[in-house]
Structures are given as C-alpha cells and as structure tokens.
Amino acid sequence: MGSPPHDRERAGVVRIDQYRERASAAAPAVAISAQHITQRFQGRNQQHSVLALDDLSLEVHQGEFLCLLGPSGCGKSTLLNIIGGMASPTAGEVRIGERAIVGPAPRDIAFVFQESTLLPWYTVLENFKVAAEFQNNAVGWEERARTTLRSVGMEGFAEHYPNQLSTGMRQRINLARGLFLDTPILLMDEPFAALDEQTRMVLGEDLSVLLARTGKTIVFVTHSLAEAVFLADRIVVMTARPGRIKAITLNPEPHPRSPDFMMTPRFGELRNELFTLLRDEIRHTVAEMREARDRYAEPRNDA
User: Fold this and answer.
1) Which residues of 177-199 are buried (b: 16+ CB within 10 A; e: fewer)?
2) 77 belongs to a structural domain
3) Which residues are 68's β-sheet partners?
4) Does 273 fall in a domain?
5) Consecutive sets of 10 residues in the chain, 303 residues long: mean pLDDT of each?
6) Residue 120 class from Cβ within 10 Å (0-12 exposed, 13-18 middle, 19+ buried)?
7) HSE of 193, CA atoms in CB hemisphere, 13 A
8) Is residue 87 included in any domain, yes or no?
9) φ, ψ dihedrals at 229, nearest 5°
10) Are 218 and 211 contacting, i.e. CB atoms less than 8 angstroms apart?
11) Contact at 8 Å (CB) between 207 and 255?
C-alpha cells in the first residue's frame, strides 16, 4: 500500500511529470541535457537486438549531485557512458551547456570507475601526470596533484605503486584523480561497489565534503539505496530494461552531510520510498533473467 500524499511529499518523491513542472518554474542552470536518448544494441539479427534505453530525457543542474538508481541491466552505465561521450546513442542528443557531445570531452568531464584505472607501472604521482598530459593541462600538475591527494588523506602515498595499496586506498586515489582534473563535471560508475561497508561510508562522507567544497556537477551510478540517499540531491529511479525514468526523488539535505543524517526519520523515509519504487522493477528483471535462462538452457536427455 502506498504512502499517503502528505507522507510522499515529506519524503521528497515526485513523479517525473510533476518534477518537470517544478523544474520549469524554478528555471535552474543546466549543466547536462540529455534529450530523447535511445540506445539499441544490435545482435545477430533484429530478434537478438537489445533496447537498453528508450526515449529517456534528463537534465542535470550545475553543482548538483544526481544519482542513477535502478535494477541491474536497466541502462544506468550505458546512460553514463553516453553522457560522457564514451558511447553514441542510437537516437537523441547530449549537450554540455550549448555544446553537443559527440565524443570524449576531457576538459569538461572526468570519470571515476568501479575498478581502479591506475596504471600499475607508474607511481600514484606519475599516474596524475599522465592524466594531466592526456587533458593537455600539465602546467603546475604536481602541486595540484599533491593538494588533491591531501584532500583525501593520501598525500603520504604519492610515491607508492598501485599494487602497494589496498582497494580502499586505490579508490580514494581514483576519486582524487577525478577531482584533480578540475573538470566541471564528474561521472562516477559505482566507484565504491567493491569496498566494504565501513570504507564506503567513509568515502561517502569524503565525497559529500568535497562536493560542498568544489561545487562540481556529479552523476553517480549506484545499486545502494542508502548510498543514494546519503549522497544525492536528486535520485533518478529507472525502470527495468528498457530504461526509462520512473520517478525522481528530491533530497534537500545540505552538503556536507554528517553520518548522523542516516539516523534521521527523513533518511528512513527516503530509503523506504526508493525500495517501494524499485521493488516491482527488480521483480520484473529477475523474472526476465529466469525466462532467458530457461529459454537458452540445453534440453535435458532423460534417455
């Protein structure tokens, strides 16, 4: 049974049509505009093609932390790659400001991925140099790198190699490198997924502090309800494949956010509302996976 209207409003959940009305009235500055994005992956024939995203439109405001949340396979990472110019949509367009994105834009957009992308044959500091050279922004790189490492408590490991660091330490450095590139937009694809819960919480706190300090626009993919509520200003809930926007959740809690926020009634309300929105989508995804398994399973030989 759904929450009464006043409970839903207090939790900050609005349907997509309601959100568009409010956003239009507020006229916020737009950093990223994705309009009518469709992505279809071709198979051996039309029967085997996969519609990953279906006519999805989304705007991300300047200085906003936006989370993409949805069941596995709904197109979250695909949408992130399209926004970052790493993939081209079958239909639709992404704009950063007034400029259409038709390929990678390293001066505007930085990525932080789930897996460490540090080059193992370089030290931490040398990895930062490589990133600065790729961005064609190597002037003063070392001072900027050490300052950014200091902001995540990793300056003392600048001369270490990645294989000398724990998974959590490498992810801190990946985060620092994304900030070091000094792009207005940071795209993060489940960057804390491989970490234990305690480390995820600490890095989430760090990210909230850094957002308040830098004012970057962040788009963050996650499967974690708690992580989305703790970090995001808005949470975009996506449907099962093909990915569409089911609802948008607003979270007005200011950054930086304290761990005490997780103990408040508002945090629980938002998390519960997200679970309610996602439950049917997850069931749909699981049912499709079972059907596919049964369809392609080899026939049993009872002879």
Assistant:
1) bbbbbebbbbbbbbbbeebeeeb
2) yes
3) 221, 236
4) yes
5) 40 51 60 96 78 95 95 93 95 94 91 89 96 86 93 92 92 89 92 81 84 89 94 95 94 92 94 93 78 63 51
6) exposed
7) 14
8) yes
9) -65, -40
10) yes
11) no
Instruction: Pull the structure tokens for residue 213.
Output: 């300090």
- Residue 168 tokens, joined: 């959590």
Domain of 9 in residue numbering reads as: 5-108+183-295
Show the CA angle centred on residue 83, arms to residues 34 and 92, nearest 5°: 40
CATH of the domain at 244: 3.40.50.300
Helix (H, G, I), strand (E, B), or coil: what is residue 112?
strand
Q: In one letter, which amino acid is 286?
A: V
Indicate the residue type of 86.
Answer: M
Q: Are 199 and 175 in contact (CB under 8 A)?
A: no
Q: Is 162 helix (H, G, I), strand (E, B) or coil?
A: helix
- Both structure tokens of 19: 């959100």
Helices in 215-264 by DSSP H: which ranges?
225-231
pTM score, whole prediction: 0.84
Report the DSSP pairing between strands 234-238 and 65-69: parallel
Whole-angstrom CA distances from 278 to 24, 44, 50, 65, 283 are 26, 32, 21, 20, 9
Q: Report the number of distinct structural domains present in the chain.
A: 1
For the record, the structure tokens of 47 come out as 């029967």
Query: Which pair of structure tokens corresponds to residue 58?
Result: 């989304």
> Cα dihedral sign for 73, 21, 218, 192?
negative
